[in-house]
Amino acid sequence: VARIAVPDADRYLLPMAGLLTAIGVTEIYRLGPSDAFKHGLWFVIGVALFALAQIFLCLPAGRYADAHGFKRPTTLCIAALVPGIAVSAVWPGFAALCVSAILSGGAVVAASIALQRHVGRAAAGTSELKQAFSILSLAPACASFVGPVMAGVLIDRAGFQAAFAALAALPVVTWLLLRKAKDSEGDRDAA
Description:
Blueprint: H1 2-5, H2 13-31, H3 36-68, H4 71-90, H5 94-122, H6 126-158, H7 160-178
Helix pairs in contact: 2-3, 3-5, 4-5, 4-7, 5-6, 6-7
């Protein structure tokens, strides 16, 4: 199905993600068979909430980025992402994880749209555009490595709440790095 729907997509990424998810669910089952269904259901609900937030916010996020440039949407996304993740550190539980999934899903898609729009407008030519988007595509890959590894180490050493607190601090680091970025020419509102 993926080969038909998205023919240019990586043919190994989705099967690998499915395999890793299956290994994780198997490990949960081995740790506590009575809790395996509940944890699997929580996983499905969390992923669904994350994805639904992205689906419903992509068009409004694009319109907002068109109207306000790069910095304002990105700052708002970070302002939603930090408490969205921190809520799971303060009040650990299923409801907090659902709030985290919704806020982080919406913030991620809105920030990605604003960033891609900014990079597309900032590039001077075709080769510069290709180079900029190549570099930009490394960010999700790096985040998909650093975040889970850091969370895993912190969960083993200090517990889930410490891991969520550290993950909530990462968007602040992003904000500090992006403060000096300039909105591209043609943006109506320099934030």
